[in-house]
Amino acid sequence: MGIALNLQEVRKVYPNGTEALRGIDLVIQEGEAIGLIGPNAAGKTTLAKLVIGLLEPTSGRIELWGSRFGQLPRSMREKIGFLPEGGSPFESLTVEENIIFWEKLYGISKIRGEEALKEWGLWEFRKKRAKTLSQGMKRRLMIAQVTLHQPSLLVMDEPTSSLDPVVRRNTVDLLRGFANSERTLLITSHDLFDVERICTRIVILRHGLILAQGSMEELQRKLGATQQVRVETSVPIPEALRESLEERFGIESTSPNEFFLPQGHNRGELIRFLVESGVDINLVEEKKETLEDIYIKMVKEDEER
Amino acid sequence: MRRVWAVFWKELRSFYGFGWMAWLGVLVALAFGPLQSLRMGATGFLVTSLWGIFGGVYLLETISFYYERTQGSSLMLLSSPLTVGEIFLGKYLAIFLVAYLTQLVALAISACVIWSTFAVLPPPSLLPMLFITIPIYGFVFMELYSLAYALLGNVSYLWLVMVLIFPFLLSPPSQIMPIINWIISFPALPIVLGILLALLLFFVVSRISKERMVMVLS
Q1: What are the boundaries of the signal sequence (chain B) (predicted)?
Q2: A42-82 pLDDT, tens per residue?
Q3: b/e string for A99-122 if b means 16 or more Cβ within 10 A?
């Protein structure tokens, strides 16, 4: 597999002086699924727009499949799909006409268009004008449009925003399927749960710079993230026993009948001790740090620096 | 051409989705020329042709840009493999076709009005101007409009053009006819000039960056 996308020292300064990106170096291999996360105004949308040629970098170099965007042959440009944040389908057209437009644009068969309408639950709305659809349905239509030509590189800005839970699940499943194929995916999102489920690599942006990047495991390792065990008892633990648990296992209590066992302590030994002490255990579960925990930690650390 | 055709098709289909206000505007453009014909005689054909093309182009292009800007659909279009030139060409062809048809209908109505009132039809020497020269300059006006939109972010200065044209449209035939006679005495010259101007403007329009269009339309 080759390099799909290569960004070197990319800076973007808008005409009003806002420096959205301040030197981004990022290499994305074909087949990777990248999740761009970061607070508002971190530069995520700017980066997405630069990648698909909607914006031009102030300095630095962006290469897609080894060529600068301007030098990319038309056949390669047709392998890119982009879902903008907050955009809209063509509202004066019907749902069906919106799809037909993309069929005509990419020279796709009508059958594929009909499949997409059915796949995205739009078939029964096909004769309705797009302006009469709800926000979620419009978003669904846009996703159907940008995935219609089965792009090799799909860039999506907040793909799951304003979708109802069922469609959101469908979208995540579709993107996971996409991520498992040989195609490349770049998504920006505030929904860290979705990013965690879809992406193989996560890039955290802040103030126009990459704060950290890597797989979930790599980010967890970088942060020295802990893997705790949560224990819940059916009745509150007596004070004397709690003190003994703190001393022996270093537990962190969160309520009278719940505590966490930090990483590095023997879980089996703890359970034996509790049973021998006559404590009725309700639940023992592993609690891994989520992407949200990691993200919040990283942003806080960066703020403190 | 496949991509230009796709945009042309999309634009034409979009016109059906315009609200009644938009079509009321086009009807006004249609009616203005024939109404003027009632007091102008043969000169009314010119007024009808000018008003049909320029009014049609102005209204349709304004509505088209307005919809793209307010709906945010332009981002989808600009992020596709289409070039700015292809997007504009598709748009121009669709708008021009409808404006030209508007002009033809308006001219037919004018012909009926003028024939029944003054018992005259347009002289043959005027036909190239009505059906070729004026439409070409309507096309040029359409390009100027989009260029102003893309470069300035608004089209306010085009009102000045309209203000300049308006007195001409309302002037008495005795003032207009010498100018018209001078133009139609060299029919090829304004046509060739208009085509060259249209090509030059299209060259300039197609050089506008997508970034500029994103800034203006979103």
Answers
A1: none
A2: 888 999 999 988 899 999 999 988 888 878 888 888 889 99
A3: bbbbbbbbebeeebbeebbeebeb
Amino acid at B67: Y
Provide ipTM, 2 decimals: 0.80
Going from the C-alpha of A173 to that of each of A20, A55, A195, A203, the distances in angstroms are 32, 30, 12, 21
Tally of domains within chain B: 1
Q: How many residues does chain A have?
A: 305
Tokens representing A143 are 């996703």
Domain interval for residue B153:
2-217
**pTM for this one?**
0.79
With beta carbons under 8 A apart, name residues in chain A contacting B76.
Answer: 84, 87-90, 142, 145-146
- Cβ contact A53–B13 (<8 Å): no
Q: From the candidates B16, B63, B76, which should be mutated to test the interface with A, based on the most A CB atoms within 10 A? A: B76
**Residue of A54, A82, A146 with shortest CB distance to B211:** A54
Cβ-count burial of A6 within 10 angstroms (0-12 exposed, 13-18 middle, 19+ buried)? Answer: middle
